[in-house]
Write a structure and sequence with these properties.
- The complex is a heterotrimer, with one copy of chain A (278 residues) and two copies of chain B (201 residues).
- With 278 residues, chain A is mainly α.
- Chain A is built from seven helices and four strands.
- In chain A, helix 1 crosses helix 2, helix 1 packs across helix 4 and helix 2 packs across helix 3.
- The longest helix of chain A has 26 residues.
- With 201 residues, chain B is an alpha+beta fold.
- Chain B has two domains: 68 residues, Arc Repressor Mutant, subunit A (Orthogonal Bundle), CATH 1.10.10; 98 residues, Orthogonal Bundle (Arc Repressor Mutant, subunit A), CATH 1.10.10.10.
- In chain B, strands 1-3-2 form a three-stranded antiparallel β-sheet. A three-stranded antiparallel β-sheet of chain B has the order 4-6-5.
- In chain B, helix 1 crosses helix 3 and helix 5 crosses helix 7.
- The termini of chain B are far apart.
- The chains are: A mainly alpha (278), B alpha+beta (201).
- Chains A and B meet through helix 1, helix 3 and helix 4 of A and helix 1, strand 3, helix 5, helix 9 and helix 10 of B.
Chain lengths: 278, 201, 201
């Protein structure tokens, strides 16, 4: 019951015996049996790493490690650390708790209902240790290869290969001539001409409004001073707007001259206009 | 020794002069499209056993000094980066499992991978980001580079030491897969407890 | 080909990996005091006629690409590129008005001309610097080259069509008819004034 390595389960084999482990970088901690472990937690890359190193110290194939021994060693290690009041990272304590739990499961009478069984839990742990061990060994073998720049060397002073890029510019004669035409057309002096637009001049508005005002002392709306008459183009809205603006300025001018009065009762309300009684 | 033909000489000169390994295509393009495989084979044979060898690494060719002369050439001054244990393990895991996510690396190592660890490997030019895994969270996945192969003297990932044995032994499969195989496929809940830091992802 | 002995291989590798030419003493010291002259002679003979040669220069030895293959180290690659519109205009102005300064080109184009534009024309070999104008600031003036005439199939600049021909061909019509329409379509008489200048030169 000590050796939990599940003899009934097929286990992948990678390493034959412990030779395969020779030459691996050993962890930051070492130590013999029975409390000679010295503690150097910085040396461990986590609880799995510590377990792997403990397993290696069983000096057996990873397939045949004793999980119970391993658990005891791990728990012993953790206890020692706690006795020395070393602060242990949480994951080490979690692993310790889980291993204690696993140990109890392995030692207690079997509960046939339990899934997965303690043996299976142990197997999983073992599989994980095997995988980490395999990668650790692979890393070591990788590092031990003839490495470029350390063991083998590329040419120290290569001349280097250079590719000089050159542009071959393409352009047709027509492009040149057309471009010249474009430049010429673009830079020809531009003559601006303003088209004659239909307007009522201020002068004509002044005389018209002035004349119409003289005949009436009634308040009259400004718009009624505007000329109308279909045939003469006064229905042209542009011209009407011009006439309104000019007539308004004319009304202001007449008021300024003291010839007219202006009243507007509200903003944008009708603008009323009458002659000043002399 | 028979005189090498012009193409062989040209390939030899090109590779000697190049300041980095060249692919067959690059050599060919440099030589006006000539077919260079024959010349490469001839050169490789010619240099075999000499102090300088022609090697192919990840599809790229370069000359380098023979490995058995390392003791003569090793330079004290520019010693190669010494990788930390964490970085060495991460590199091995990436090389043997690529592409892998950080979570997968951590599942194998049983410990979190410090931020700087993968950076160191990428800065060395040995590891690159190889995209994202199309699973929830879309984790970044990592793979090795041609420079990795060149640095460690590998023609391809098939040359990784022991990779065939590891694969045959199932040691490159996730724990859960191996477990399922060993226990006859009972892939149910996995002991809920502390070992739960999933190999999956 | 007989296999080289270890000393020859060591010298070969040492010289290959060296980042500078090495004297006989340096090589010897590197190889534990071995006498290397014989090995150097053997290597030199071995590499004679190959794509790489072992040469001695001023008492120092190094490998170098065979002299007749030096052209492999620099390869030219031509990219065919279309002249930009700005460059084409500048070229046209130089061709019609040469010699002109950059300020004059800008005055005629009505747009600033980037420094690179003239560089491109000179790189193409169509424009050359034709001296300096003897006015304040002594601006550089530009003219076309014989290559320009050859490229465009002209026997002389007189072959360029004159303004009247351009007008007849419709090439003086404003490009942007749409613009004319938008602004009221009175696009007619743009003064006999403008075309007065130079077909001449």
């Amino acid at each position: 019951m000590d050796d939990v390595a599940p003899a009934n389960l097929p286990v992948p084999s990678l390493f034959d015996g412990d030779e395969a482990w020779d030459g691996l970088p050993s962890g930051g901690a070492a130590g013999g049996e029975g409390g000679a472990l010295y503690l150097e937690l910085e040396g461990w890359e986590g609880p799995l790493d510590l377990l792997l190193d403990l397993a290696r110290r069983q000096k057996v194939d990873l397939r045949t490690i004793s999980i119970l021994d391993l658990v005891d060693q791990y728990l012993g290690y953790i206890n020692q650390a706690e006795a020395l009041r070393l602060e242990l990272a949480a994951d080490y304590l979690v692993m310790a708790a889980w291993l204690a739990y696993l140990k109890s499961l392995l030692l207690l009478p079997r509960d046939p209902e339990m899934q997965p069984s303690p043996e299976e839990l142990a197997l999983k742990l073992q599989l994980r240790l095997q995988r980490l061990g395999a990668m650790r060994e692979a890393g070591a073998r990788l590092m031990a290869r003839d490495r470029l720049g350390r063991d083998v060397f590329a040419r120290g002073a290569p001349e280097g290969l250079r590719v000089d890029r050159r542009n071959r510019w393409q352009c047709e004669l027509f492009d040149v001539i057309q471009a010249y035409g474009t430049v010429k057309a673009r830079t020809v002096p531009v003559v601006h001409m303003v088209r004659e637009r239909p307007v009522m001049t201020l002068e004509s508005a002044l005389s018209r409004v002035g004349a119409m005002l003289g005949t009436s002392l009634e308040w009259r709306e400004l718009r009624s001073f505007l000329p109308s008459g279909e045939g003469e183009g006064w229905d042209n809205p542009q011209l009407r707007r011009s006439a309104l603006a000019s007539s308004f300025v004319a009304a202001l001018e007449l008021a300024k001259q003291g010839k007219a009065e202006l009243v507007q009762d509200e903003i944008f309300g009708p603008l009323l206009l009458r002659a000043v009684a002399a | 020794m028979s005189a090498p033909d012009d193409l062989v000489r040209a390939v030899e000169a090109t590779l000697f002069a190049a300041d980095r390994p060249l692919s067959v295509d690059e050599i060919s393009r440099h030589l006006g499209g000539a077919s260079v495989r024959g010349a490469l084979a001839e050169l490789q044979a010619h240099y075999a056993g000499r102090g300088v060898e022609l090697v192919e690494r990840g599809g790229r060719w370069h000359f380098q000094t023979a490995g058995d002369l390392a003791h003569l050439l090793r330079r004290e001054k520019e010693d190669v980066r010494r990788l930390s244990r964490a970085a060495t393990e991460a590199l091995a895991i990436i090389a043997y499992h690529e592409p892998v996510s950080r979570a997968e690396i951590e599942a194998i190592r049983g410990v979190q991978t410090a931020r700087g660890t993968l950076d160191v490997l990428m800065e060395a030019g040995w590891v690159r980001i190889a995209g994202r895994r199309e699973v929830p969270g879309r984790p970044t996945i990592y793979a090795t580079t041609g420079e990795f192969l060149a640095h460690f003297g590998l023609s391809s990932r098939r040359d990784l030491p022991g990779i065939e044995e590891l694969r045959a032994a199932g040691l490159l499969d996730p724990v859960d897969d191996a477990f399922a195989v060993l226990t006859g496929g009972m892939e149910d809940d996995r002991g809920g407890s502390a070992d739960g830091e999933d190999e999956s992802s």
